[in-house]
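Collaborator request, handled under Task 6.
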Amino acid sequence: MEFEEIKRLKRTVRKAIGGEKGTAVFFEHPTLPEHGDYSTNIALILAKKRKTSPRQLAEEIVENLKKEKEKIWEKVEVAGPGFINFWFTKEYLLERAKFINHRQKLKETLQKKGKGKTVVIDYSSPNIAKPFGIGHLRSTNIGQAIYNLYRTLGWKTVGDNHLGDWGTQFGKLIVAIKKWGKKDLSALTIKDLEELYVRFHQEASRNPSLEEEGREWFKKLEEKDPEAVRIWRACVDISWREFARIYRLLGVKIDFAYGESFYQDKMEEVVKEAEEKEIAKKSKGALIVEIPGLSAPAMLKKSDGATTYLLRDLAAIKFRLKKWQPDLIIYEVGADQSLHFKQLFAVAEMLGWTKKVRLIHVAHGMIRWEKGKFSTRKGETIHLEEVIQEGIKRAKKLIASSQTGKNLSQKEREKVAQAVAIGGIKFNDLKQEPQKDIIFSWEKVLSFEGYSAPYLQYTLARCFSILKKKSFSGEVSLPEKINKEEESLLRTFYRFPEVIAMAAENFSPHFLAQYLFELAQKFNLFYQKHKVLGSNRENFRLFLVLTVKNILQQGLEILGIEVLERM
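Structure tokens returned to the collaborator:
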């Protein structure tokens, strides 16, 4: 996804190299700002083809660039063995900042990128009969941010909450309820269901025959046995009330919730197609698909005739293709399901379903305490609501002890504490590359100084506070000389649209999180060193504050972090 800066640079560089066909021109941001706003290695690539010195060729390209009439850079230099570094003019950077501040123009430009395209995002997908654990936070959080990124870029976005409401575990739960459930179904809570599920596994470790009993009850559920369906339906209703409360707390709203059970009557059509296309075969009574390059075959049906998770996921793909005709389907699911998705995508390709759609698994790592992974079976699940409430309690203490917190009413303190706690928990997840594990630390989650949501929220609140005292006039020009902190902000603003596109293309919101943190750091350094209100360049500096405010506000909204005007 290319924006104005890259397009213009590419046009001029292609002219400078003689319009050589078949040569791709790539640009990147140098790690160090002293190496420019953009850099290209085109001279190194061309030098191999032309059998010449990369450095000499780079210098020739730079000389040709200097002859161009369209000057959007103030300096072009050769670095190292033949890299070419570009610095935009401050006038151009100011124009791009004005564009960033024109929210409608920015929106229209961004939305051109995905016009006419549809993406289905499969995320959250908690399991019925279990409390919403912190382990499901990453899928919910990253999935929602990816959804927001693609919607910002103009894609038709479809969020699908593929609830885990089917499978052998329900046979086990039915057994547990019938054997040890002391309450009426209507009186059971999500906590009761969790305890019964844990007890089943404790008892099964001593009495393995319970596992077979669980399989038999799931088979009955698939055959629509009235008793099995009655108990299963009660578990779904109890669980959905729990999930709805958590989603409200997180500020998450998913478009559809087609659980695995929805595909119960759609699986045989997939089985029939797999058999007709001769990719499915019987093996020891089970129905499998052997996949070239994978040692483990994909199982569609077990030897007892019970359907599998993979078959239900295949039915979901077929349904989604028919209902939404997507260009892209993204699965935001843990890395421990990587083999499953390799098998799923391979079978979908063998069935001929992937000619017009791209299937992507965004595999996230685990959230861990220092002691390691959590497990429902052992009764060690960390409930997300408990984590949120603990965060709110800690945030209240921080706000009560802060100077700015003393100016807030009790109601405002409650609102800020919740926003800071939930924002901190969500951002702690989003700032990491999805595939990496996260070690959860309250000190980092709620830090007002480090790489955290509270730091960004506080920086944004500072911008709101300045602009309430004096608003930007609407007209701005460059001062005769700008200082390095002002220039540093100007050289950061123009990257905002590009970062949104990069985060979407890489299915990784952490690119946006990093950019917002970098911008906030530069703004706070600027604010510490220079007076805004009452300075001899007040309006220009108010313009910088306004641009920071608009970028942080839009960026946090995309990440699903609540914006606070006062803290």
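The cover message to the collaborator said: "The chain has a mean pLDDT of 91. The longest helix spans residues 226-250. Please let us know whether this matches your experimental observations."
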